[in-house]
Amino acid sequence: MIYSKLLGTGSYLPEQIITNDDLAQRIETSDEWIRSRTGICQRHVRAAGQTTSDLALEASRRALEAAGLRPDQLDLIVVATTTPDMAFPSTACLLQAKLGANTGAPAFDVQAVCTGFLYALSVADQFIRSGSARQVLVVGAETFTHLLDWNDRNTCVLFGDGAGAVVLGASSTPGLLGTRLHADGRYAGLLSAPGSMSGGQVLGKPTVQMDGGAVFKFAVKVLDQVSREILTEHGLTPAAVDCFIPHQANIRIIEATAHKLGIPSERVVRTVSEHGNTSAASVPLALDHAWRTGQFKTGQLGLLVAVGGGFTWGAGLLQV
Ligand code: ACO
User: Fold this and answer.
1) Cα(166)–Cα(65) distance, integer angstroms
2) Could you tell which of 37, 154, 187, 215 is best to mutate to test the pocket of ligand 1, judged by most ligand atoms within 8 Å of the CB?
3) CA nearest ligand 1 atom 40, residue
4) How far apart (Å, rounded) are the C-alpha atoms in residues 95 and 89?
5) What is the Cα–Cα distance from 130 to 264, expressed in whole angstroms?
6) According to the model, what pLDDT value does residue 218 have?
7) Per-residue pLDDT, 200
8) CA 43 to ligand 1 center in whole angstroms
9) Out of 3.30.300.30, 3.40.47.10, 3.100.10.10, 3.40.50.980, which CATH number does the structure's domain 177-319 have?
10) Catalytic residue (choose from 20, 44, 102, 247)
């Protein structure tokens, strides 16, 4: 039996920070409102000209360094992003060239918005389990702020830019115990950036549209469901989870989910206050934070969960 083992993690946040007070100077909001409803204190925003593949590059270099591998030792690159540098080539191909990774090896993007990293992890795991790849770079990277209308206080306070990456390697011991993925396209209208390009023109609204209350309720429901599904599948209960690594959208969603599952507060990774919702980058950013701070360590079991536009949602169980 072949498993995917976590060999290294890395992350990157752009230097520029926008605080809640900065936003309150531009729009009708306040630090108190944002903090109490979301737990967010600040978000990182890309510099002019900085693209998703630039953010991915920094996170990938750090993950490769942690794994002790060179870019030319990679068999596959999978990038989860909703905000690719361009329509094509894929961000993964651009990243391959920037990293100086193994040319000729496959590289492609997956798009599942905030669940993107779990989708990418699952795809990478199938490649490793089937013997098609031995060393895989999996990245979640977003410049989500370019999808924002900075005058829409309902959405612009929530998001930020960032990237996280992991290197997975084939191993005879677990590893990633498994993943569970879901999608339900009937809920597409609750959260979307519905604009499209045609003949060089943007058609429709290209910025984020959201029914915040409905998203909140849906998120708490499915994060609880998918966590129980994957734990049950592996004969486990929430008590077995040493480290809960959820998508970082809103501290209230994270805490409500952990409470429903009965996972104690000290086992929950929280990074949302520092960078807001970074979409597909959020889970690998939280994973890297937990790993580097020692909140998640060798011998432990991690539960990764995410939910996002689509709707999409998923979970992964990671033994390290
Ligand atoms: N500052 C001040 N007031 C605001 C702001 C703001 N930034 N944004 C909205 N408001 C106002 C609204 O206009 C509304 O005013 P009204 O009642 O006069 O119409 C009021 O605040 C709404 O307040 P609440 O109902 O108390 O807001 P709520 O507690 O529902 O919080 C929030 C709103 C934060 C959007 C919440 O619903 C939420 O977090 N939902 C989840 C959304 C999310 O996480 N999306 C991310 C993408 S999805 C994902 O990653 C899972």
Assistant:
1) 11
2) 37
3) 212
4) 10
5) 36
6) 97
7) 87
8) 17
9) 3.40.47.10
10) 247
Structural domain spans, the chain: 3-173, 177-319
For the chain, state the CA radius of gyration: 18
> Closest ligand 1 atom to the C-alpha of 158?
46
pLDDT of residue 271: 98
Token couple for 24 = 């309150």
Q: List Cβ neighbours of 49 (8 Å cut-off, separation of 6 or more).
A: none
Residue pair 182/226 in contact (Cβ under 8 Å)? The answer is yes
For residue range 209-233, list pLDDT tens digits in order: 999 999 999 999 999 999 999 999 9
Catalytic residue among 20, 93, 102, 114: 114
Element (H, E) at 187: none
CATH fold, domain 3-173, is Peroxisomal Thiolase; Chain A, domain 1 (3.40.47)
- 275-300: b or e for each residue (b if 16 or more CB lie within 10 Å)? bbbbbbbbbbbbbbbbbeeebbeeee
Token digits of residue 50: 């900085």
Which one-letter amino acid corresponds to residue 231? L
Residue 234 a catalytic site member: no
State the DSSP code for 207: S
User: Residues lining ligand 1, CB < 6 A?
Assistant: 29, 33-34, 37-38, 114, 153-154, 157-158, 191, 210, 212-213, 215-216, 219, 247, 249-250, 277, 307-308
